[in-house]
């Protein structure tokens, strides 16, 4: 079964059809830079362009860096503030004239990792963290998602945690990898105190460099890199749409 997945980020909007039985992209993903300002109309216009690139006609799952409840957007961390209180699900569905399911981007990545990746068959408390433009989080207990945790916005060291330890600090060469990893370790130990996870899955594009900085991370919980990496949001969005729209 194929469903289209879109992952909207602060820097890029990417998507592809997904084989939701295997958890693989059914075609090479297509990416366009996130428009600035990242208003609802501008972003969903680009998202629709990504879908039409594949001449797609069917269900679409869309991951957004926001708290999303029943299709309504309630926060706007790395997108324009005009998103707040917008029915993002209806907006994209109207653009595409297709059924759409909208959810938090880290929740989408977490769903993919739990079904097809590093969290497969884990039944305890699992925390999936995605490090990119910000820090996303997805919390699971016995395989069930607790949605919209948004742990990147915890107050930490006098600021939001993602301002202290997001991967963009390294990717934009503002900070050396080892120095950044030390900050990440402080953050990981903090969330451990709050949630006592059995497993922490380290995701986001920078997880491909996990071996380079793992030595700086010291957690009680088992700590492993994500397997789907930058495809997790696309796969998870498609999976969520398949299950919600079936």
Give a structural overview.
There is one protein chain. The protein has 246 residues and is α/β, with parallel strands linked by helices. The protein has two domains: 2-107 and 231-245, ATPase, nucleotide binding domain (Nucleotidyltransferase, domain 5, 2-Layer Sandwich), CATH 3.30.420; 121-226, ATPase, nucleotide binding domain (Nucleotidyltransferase, domain 5), CATH 3.30.420. The protein contains eight helices and 15 strands. Helix 1 (40-53) packs across helix 2 and helix 3 packs across helix 8 (232-245). 49% of the residues are buried. The mean pLDDT is 96.
List the main descriptive attributes of the protein structure presented here.
Nucleotidyltransferase, domain 5; single chain; 246 residues; 8 helices; six-stranded mixed sheet; five-stranded mixed sheet; 2 domains; alpha/beta; 15 strands; 26% strand
**Separation, N- and C-terminal Cα atoms:** 11 Å
CATH superfamily of the largest domain: ATPase, nucleotide binding domain
| CATH-defined fold name of the largest domain | Nucleotidyltransferase, domain 5
Q: Average pLDDT across residues?
A: 96
Encode the helix/strand succession as letters: EEEEHEEEHEHEEEEEHHHEHEH
Helix count, per DSSP? Answer: 8
Structurally, how many domains make up the residues? 2
Give me the oligomer status. single chain
Round the Cα radius of gyration to an integer and report it: 17 Å
Structural class of the helix and strand makeup?
alpha/beta
Low-confidence stretches: none
Helix coverage percent of residues? 25-40%
- CATH architecture type of the largest domain: 2-Layer Sandwich
Query: How many E-type strands?
Result: 15
Largest sheet: 6 strands, mixed
């Amino acid at each position: 079964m194929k469903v289209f997945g879109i992952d909207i980020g602060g820097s890029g909007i990417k998507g592809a059809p997904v084989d939701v039985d295997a958890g693989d992209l059914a075609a090479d993903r297509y990416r366009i830079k996130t428009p600035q300002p990242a208003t609802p109309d501008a972003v969903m216009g680009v998202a629709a362009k990504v879908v039409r690139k594949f001449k797609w006609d069917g269900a679409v799952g869309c991951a957004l860096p926001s708290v999303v409840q029943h299709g309504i957007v309630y926060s706007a961390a790395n997108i324009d503030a005009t998103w707040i209180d917008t029915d993002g699900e209806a907006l994209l569905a109207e653009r595409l004239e297709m059924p759409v399911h909208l959810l938090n981007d880290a929740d989408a990545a977490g769903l993919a990792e739990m079904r097809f990746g590093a969290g497969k068959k884990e039944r305890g408390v699992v925390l999936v963290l995605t490090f990119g433009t910000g820090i996303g989080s997805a919390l699971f207990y016995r395989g069930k998602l607790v949605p919209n945790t948004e742990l990147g916005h915890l107050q930490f060291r006098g600021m939001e945690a993602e301002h202290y330890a997001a991967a963009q600090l390294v990717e934009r060469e503002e900070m050396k990898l080892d120095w950044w990893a030390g900050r990440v370790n402080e953050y990981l130990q903090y969330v451990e105190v709050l949630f006592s996870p059995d497993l922490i899955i380290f995701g986001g594009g920078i997880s491909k460099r996990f071996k380079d900085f793992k030595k700086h991370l010291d957690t009680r919980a088992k700590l492993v890199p994500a397997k789907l990496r930058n495809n997790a949001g696309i796969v998870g969005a498609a999976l969520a749409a398949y299950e919600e729209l079936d």
